[in-house]
Amino acid sequence: MSEDYRSMWQLLGLNLEAHDALLNVLGKAYQEIFLAQKDRPQGMAYFDFVMSEVHGLRIKELLDEKAAGRKIIGTYCVFVPEEIVLAANATLVGLCSGADFAMEEVEKCLPRNTCALIKSSFGFKLGKVCPYLESADMIVGENTCDGKKKAYESLKGLVENLYVMDLPQVKSEQGRALLKAEYQRFRAALEDLSGVAVTTASLKQAIRTVNAKRAAIHRLSSLRKADPAPISGLDALLANQVFFYDAPLRFTKSMNAICDELEARIAEKKGVFPQKTPRILVSGCPQAVPNWKLPFVVETAGAVIVGEESCVGERGTRNLTDESGETLEEMLEAIVDRYFRVDCAIFTPNPERLEHIQEMVAAYHADGVIHYGLQFCQPYLMESMPVEKALEEQGIPCLRVETDYSMEDVGQLKTRIEAFIEQLR
Amino acid sequence: MRFAGIDIGSRTIELVVVDAAGEIVCSLQTDTGFDPMTAAKKLIREVHYDRILATGYGRSLFEVSFDAATVTEIKAHARGARVFFPEALTVLDIGGQDSKAIALFANGKVKKFEMNDRCAAGTGKFLEIMARTLGFEIADFGREALLAEKDLNISSMCTVFAESEVTSLIAKGQSRREIARGLHASVIRRAAGMINRVSSQGAIVFTGGVAKNPCMATLLAQKLGREILVPDDPQSVGALGAALLAGHSMSAV
């Protein structure tokens, strides 16, 4: 990234020294993890560029949007409806939560046994190294797990613009009504912030824009069914991660360009790994940028990841919003319908998630499932046991992994994952 | 043709060479020390082989230094255990810094495994440090513990906490042997939990350095009510398994 951004970062209040250190580590990791891969699709050059400018050009674009009167909304969760944000003349961005940062400061605010994702979101704030967070006009916290909802009470003391969205925990009529009421309240809050009313035209356009972005990711997912795999799990995860940051229209265009290339690869039977490479479905907690630990270990141990049953993956992008609504009310209903189907582990019971895992195993021809649980993430760790049991009853091998963002367990993780892959061969 | 397997563990390195028929030609052992690759090099200089396969936590380092293929300890122990007990369906391997419970299919393939995570709780290192705290030689630790008339409950599984718990029990004048027995029982509780998650019945082959400890095998049999089978040299089972796997085609590895 060029020097030009330094004054921008300074204006945003970043700690330049710490931020330099972060970018340095990130750049090295990206080199070792992504650029070192063989036979990557040429279209990944776009994502390499996006990642190299993730704290540079993209932030400048957001600041330019702000100068032109748009608002920036930061989020930590796939339940925050991008359609409504776009329709209210605002841009949605995912906030940094995929690396340990300023942990000593974090542990002054949060108990040690808090999951890495929550700790990370605090670390980026306390360490003053997330330009997205500092650019945001509104930060949306959401009442998902206990860890997050209680942590937002503390985050409120650290940021001025936190908006907390309540979420249902049961898929009942009352649960759906709560989600709808919360989306209506959110819309009003966005309209207040931006001074722009959501109209039928703007919401219709927003639904189309977000659907197109999802459809492009669905296309990528579908191409991953091929053997040999035309794209690595690491690169596909990266595309799913960039989904949260990039300008929607540009993302859709770039994603489709990669898919064109992958289709040509599949026609030529070309892949990033040889045919018959063991195929893994990863299921569980979200893997936020730059949390690439698990796929890196898996794909350097001789297997390929063919799908992510995760918020950063199909749980987040599954299902389009119905586009046929003509009135605001009809469109809002369609949005509520779409998001209410997200099978997050905060719901009880949550049988759809297991069904989706089984569907994905079949669709992507996975040989086994790695259940990815972040340490102290109660909802997903609780679900991991029945998921493992159900899969094994169907003869689908499953490895439960419980880890965090640190590197101290990489040796043991490697042994377990290698042994699991041996088991699949 | 001769095939070698080298198991580079946290405490010791074992090297086993087999002939084309799979018979053991030689079996060597050395301490890992602080420079495992030099120790490994010394060992392999003493033998002749056509192909070598590395296992154990140092396998990746060996792979880079000696351009050899690798296999995980899980697969290696599963293969090695079958040499002595061809019908075995469950293997427990407790080594210096980790422990694994492995369930096998009838054909010997790994069906499922559990492994301790991160820390040394429930491993050989735990027992070694506790033996030292109590003033026992590690070789006598199990025998002494077996002589205890009862065991004292040790609640900490963490090596650091357990050590202070032991220190306070010593200060209260409790019997060393009973404390030792309690420490063994706490490791067994953990191992039994792992075994129960992968397999519910049948004999268990016990491998790794900790299997040499007679108290462990006795308490495990009592706790689970299952037969515990310990090979003659349990510590070299991983290296033997690796040697036999080296003899297979590379695709089988």
Account of the 3D structure:
The complex is a heterodimer of chains A (425) and B (253). Chain A is of the alpha/beta class and 425 residues long. Chain A is built from 19 helices and 8 strands. Chain B contains 9 helices and 10 strands. The two termini of chain B are 17 Å apart. Chain B has helices at residues 36-45, 59-66, 73-84, 124-134, 138-146, 159-171, 176-198, 214-224, 237-247; strands spanning 2-8, 12-19, 24-31, 51-55, 69-70, 90-94, 99-104, 110-115, 204-207, 228-229. In chain B, a hairpin with a 4-residue loop joins strand 2 (12-19) and strand 3 (24-31). In chain B, helix 5 (138-146) packs across helix 8 and helix 7 crosses helix 8. Chain B folds into 2 domains: 1-85 and 234-253, 2-Layer Sandwich (Nucleotidyltransferase, domain 5); 88-230, ATPase, nucleotide binding domain (Nucleotidyltransferase, domain 5, 2-Layer Sandwich). Classes of the chains: A alpha/beta (425), B alpha/beta (253). The interface between A and B is medium-sized, with 14 and 17 residues.
**Averaged pLDDT of chain A:** 97
Low-confidence stretches of chain A: none
Terminal CA distance of chain B reads 17 Å
- CATH topology group of the largest domain in chain B: Nucleotidyltransferase, domain 5
Helix content of chain A: 40-55%
Q: What structural class do the secondary elements of chain B suggest?
A: alpha/beta
Note the main sheet of chain B.
5 strands, mixed
What is the count of distinct domains of chain B?
2
Q: How are the strands of the largest sheet of chain B arranged? A: 3-2-1-4-5
Mean pLDDT reading of chain B: 93
What is the element string of chain A, with H for helices and E for strands? HHHHEHEHHHEHEHHHHEHEHHHEHEH
CATH class category label of the largest domain in chain B: Alpha Beta
Q: Largest interface, by Cβ-Cβ below 8 angstroms: which chains and how many residues each?
A: A-B, 14 and 17 residues
Distance between the ends of chain A: 43 Å
Tell me about the biggest sheet of chain A?
4 strands, parallel
What percent strand of chain A? 5-15%
Helix-strand category of chain A = alpha/beta
Rg on CA atoms of chain B, Å: 18 Å
The rounded Rg of chain A comes to: 21 Å
Superfamily at the CATH H level of the largest domain in chain B?
ATPase, nucleotide binding domain
* Strands in their spatial order, largest beta sheet of chain A: 2-1-3-4
